[in-house]
Design a protein that fits this description.
- The radius of gyration is 26 Å and the shape is elongated.
- The termini are far apart.
- With about 160 residues, it is mainly α.
- A two-stranded antiparallel sheet has the order 1-2.
- It folds into 2 domains: about 5-45, no CATH class; about 60-160, 434 Repressor (Amino-terminal Domain).
- A hairpin with a 5-residue loop joins strand 1 (about 5) and strand 2.
- It has helices at about 25-40, 45-75, 80-90, 90-100, 105-115, 140-160, and strands spanning about 5, 10-15.
Length: about 160
């Protein structure tokens, strides 16, 4: 009996099975039989390259979208990159690289951002056209906000002192 492998759908892969993807198994087999098969691309080495290109392109898109949303959410919450890096226990450089879309975040890092920024994880991946434009007046500068609070505290202290 011929050595047969099975793919994700449980189909036997052999020369007698026309739907088999040249001995490839798992996700690559499924991808090869659907997308690449439709484009008449051979399932030999080019399928690996094609899948890598598609995955690489999507990763670049997701990293950029995540980075733009992270920067927007961070600013809305009143954090600088440095302050956020301290809160989530990551380096300032890493936060910067995330926001530029250079690096990606792990699940643990996503959860850290979600907790500290009090934002559901899905909002880090929302398409930008769904996000309302940033309004500088709606989100005051954290330094201005601290100065205002400091002046108010000083005024209260002076009032108590003069009584």
């Amino acid at each position: 009996m011929e050595n047969q492998k099975t793919d994700v759908g449980g189909q036997a892969q052999s020369p007698a099975n026309p739907n088999a993807a040249s001995g490839k198994t798992g996700v690559l087999s499924l991808f090869t039989r659907t997308k690449i098969g439709e484009q008449n691309v051979e399932a030999s080495g080019s399928a690996d390259t094609e899948l890598s290109q598609v995955v690489g392109g999507k990763l670049v898109e997701v990293k950029k979208l995540f980075g733009q949303n992270l920067a927007r959410i961070r600013k809305q919450a009143g954090y600088s990159q440095l302050a956020l890096s301290v809160e989530v226990d990551l380096t300032h450089n890493f936060i910067n690289e995330l926001e530029q879309g250079i690096k990606g975040a792990s699940f643990e890092t996503l959860v850290r951002f979600s907790i500290v920024l009090r934002t559901p994880i899905h909002q880090f991946f929302e398409p930008l056209e769904k996000v309302p434009p940033h309004d500088d007046f709606q989100y005051p500068d954290p330094i201005d906000q601290l100065l205002t609070e400091l002046h108010e505290t000083i005024d209260v202290w002076n009032d108590k002192r003069t009584k």
